[in-house]
Amino acid sequence: MKIEILEDNGSNISFALKDSTPAYANALRRIATNHVQSFAIDKVTFYENSSPMFDEYIAHRIGLVPIHTPLDGYTDTDEILFTLEATGPKTVYSKELESSDKEVKVENGNIPLIKLGAEQKIRIDCKAVLGTGFKHAKFQPGIVTYDQAGDKAFNFYVESFGQMPPKEIINKALARIKEEIKEVEKQAKKL
Which of 82, 98, 143, 153 has CB atoms 3.0–4.6 Å from 149's, for a disulfide? Predict the structure, then answer.
């Protein structure tokens, strides 16, 4: 199996996977999309919300904001606290979500979250956790697609949502495949 980079601009990457099978290409796509961990805001506590929007609507929007996910050093039990306090009239942007961890932060600060009218207020705490797209789409680190380019060749396109570079999405997916193969081999030896 060979991988040849066709294009890499930092936020997306194209590569050719050669000497492979459709089953392996599809496994790589599915694992990259659904089993690579990234941070997302999963719990939101509202202390004040005098805007016309329901708490659930605001929490859903905040949950979809891409959170930078460092390559190493975090576990499934880590919770990163984000706080937000704003008074209108103004548009509240994602950059106003302040993180308790300088490494785990909002990746794109220009996402509008809510428009507050005069004297309307919002005050919330949010907790970001590691998760996978298998649990919820907000944890998906990007879009991964491919098409068949020959008998044993596939052209992949990976676009990151910002949590991590697209190369890292693929590297983590490949590492996960390797772990799963080792587990299958281990179980097979017990038969």
Answer: 153
Query: Cα separation of 96 and 176, whole Å?
Result: 34
CA dist 166 → 5, 151, 181 (Å): 12, 26, 23
User: Class for domain 2-36+141-189, per CATH?
Assistant: alpha beta
Cα dihedral across residues 91, 68, 176, 153: positive or negative:
positive
Query: What pLDDT sits at residue 154?
Result: 97
Q: What is the pLDDT of residue 1?
A: 85
pTM of the entire predicted model: 0.90
CA distance 46 to 59: 9
Whose CA is closest to 165, among 3, 33, 13?
Answer: 13
Domain range list for the chain: 2-36+141-189, 39-135
Superfamily of domain 39-135: DNA-directed RNA polymerase, insert domain (2.170.120.12)
Looking at the DSSP assignment, which residues form a beta bridge with residue 24?
Answer: none
Cα 17 to Cα 25: distance, rounded to the nearest angstrom: 8
10-residue stretch averages of pLDDT, the chain, 191 residues long: 92 95 95 96 98 96 96 92 98 98 96 96 98 95 95 96 95 93 88 81
